[in-house]
Amino acid sequence: MAGPSRDLLGTDVFDEAVRSTCDVASHCKRYAISVGYWKDPYIEYFVSHPKERKAPEISRGYYARVQGVGRLLKAFLEKTKCNCQIINLGAGMDTLFWKLKDENLLPMKYFEIDFPSIVSRKIHYIKSKPPLSKPIMESHSGETLLIDAHGLDSSRYAIIGGDLRDLPRLEEKLKKCHMDPDLPTLLMTECVLIYMTTEHSTCLIKWVGGMFRSAMFINYEQVNMADRFGQIMIENLQSKQCELVGADACRSLDTQKERFLIHGWETVNALDMLKVYQSLPPDDIKRIEALEFLDEKEPFEQLMQHYCLCWAIKDSQNLGLADVTL
Ligand SMILES: C[S@@+](CC[C@H](N)C(=O)[O-])C[C@H]1O[C@@H](n2cnc3c(N)ncnc32)[C@H](O)[C@@H]1O
Hints:
Shape: globular
Oligomer: single chain
Bound molecules: S-adenosylmethionine
Strand order of the largest sheet: 3-4-5-2-1-6-7-9-8
Order of helices and strands: HHEHEHHEEEHEHEHHEHHHE
């Protein structure tokens, strides 16, 4: 495991590299959206158009991820009739809140958490761009909306600066923003847990399992990290000072599931992203495959076998969450 190496200014170099992954993800999404893989009218307010083109494998991978996570999310919203909350952990510049508002699918409250510097940046964009601030104002009722550089708390949307490895403080901040442990809750981590040690991610999973009576945890990230391709992925990131310290839990679909099962989650499913891609409606696949030419299928398939979608359920309120599937 990489220790907390600090530069001359005392900044944690490892955490800084992790924070920079937020920009990589946003640029890849913005590029795929600009080519027409899926629609997102809000991404342009958070990230400029990337200068270089991205490989079609990457955009197809993002498409499968957005569709896969979206299908699970919509099934959860349907089961709970939106009488629920969503907590997006390591949300980066995600635009889900705004898209759900447009679709009239807002949960009772939508929370986002990320490192304070990422949150400050997102709040700056929200404050300065009416297409982002207006939906928050429109969905707000009652008391004064709380906003400063490090957090924003409105009736339906809250964004909190914090560290997912510091659970007591995280819990305190969430409770201050009126997180309700009795409401069915959807937790999401997309490419986040692998940047935390397996010990830290397991504590997070255990904490969530103990906090909520009915919950679904959607985790999207790397898998099969022990094989040659996985090792190359790890080395590539290491060369950019970014250590995948949680790679242990990403050895296989079984290790992905294990950390939920040992901490009391009742049902856990995991699929590699090639399976998720192949489960998409044939018309969707036909449409996106016509967008950009892909030379060879094999590198794409290999890449997709190194990412997975895992969803875990606990359902003390018997809402039928175990039926949620792709
Ligand atoms: C690869 S980005 C993904 C962002 C977003 N989930 C998405 O898919 O677009 C990983 C995000 O997790 C955040 N993150 C990683 N470790 C974190 C921690 N310990 N506490 C808070 N945020 C963290 C990073 O700052 C970054 O925004």
